[in-house]
Amino acid sequence: MSVNIHPSWKKPLEDEFEKPYFKELIQFVKNEYRTNTCYPPGKQIFAAFDRCPFDQVKVVIIGQDPYHGPGQANGLCFSVADGIAHPPSLVNIFKEIETDLGIPYPQSGNLERWADQGVLLLNASLTVRAHQAGSHQGKGWEQYTDEVIRKISERHENIVFLLWGGFAKKKGKKIDVNKHKILATGHPSPLSANRGFWFGNKHFSKTNSLLKAMGKSPIAW
């Protein structure tokens, strides 16, 4: 498994790729994909980085691990491939956008359209075994994605970080709050959303207001 990643990420992350933990992680992932059904497809493991170059990041959304059902995960957190039914968290994301911005609920759950505008859709773990949520946690992905967040924080200014749920908020400890904007709320999963921790957060309009105030173009959510 080669680290197929946009060239702009190679310089900030090159040291990470040489560390023993990362080499062990890649061996683990190769073996898992060889012996089990895993998601996303191998060529899409680093899709978040390939789709959103390092120097174009404006917004970061942090997820936990990929969807573990057939055909769902496409390497971008909360996103599914075209033609796939929207998982409950994604449904709630689109509902919030609908009420926040008045944008009609979309047919496609493929969030490549966000990534192309500078939204890094980063899962904490980039792979998962089929039907086993969290099965590739604790193998090194978290260390790698912590470093990704740290590098963005260090080398950029005025990035909007959207931290949804307790897991994302913990990852957010790597962010320099004096340089960047953080919006935090509950997770969009039904468990959290139905208890009043998601709907009405207006993160999408707030993000665009922050981007405009910093002289950046807003996201077409």
**Which value, in Å, is the CA radius of gyration?**
17 Å
SSE pattern, N- to C-terminal = HHEHEHHEEHEHEHH
Strand content: 5-15%
Quaternary = single chain
Helical content stands at 25-40%
**pLDDT below 50 for ≥5 consecutive residues: which ranges?**
none
What would you call the shape? Answer: globular
Calculate the mean pLDDT score and round it: 96
Q: Determine the N-to-C terminus distance.
A: 33 Å
Instruction: Characterize the main sheet.
Output: 4 strands, parallel
SS class: alpha/beta
Number of strands: 6
Number of helices: 9
Strand order of the largest sheet: 3-2-5-6
Gist of the model:
With 221 residues, the chain is an alpha/beta fold. The chain has nine helices and six strands, in the order H-H-E-H-E-H-H-E-E-H-E-H-E-H-H. Helix 7 (166-171) links the parallel strand 5 (160-164) and strand 6 (181-185).
Keywords:
221 residues; alpha/beta; four-stranded parallel beta sheet; two-stranded antiparallel sheet; 9 helices; 11% strand; globular
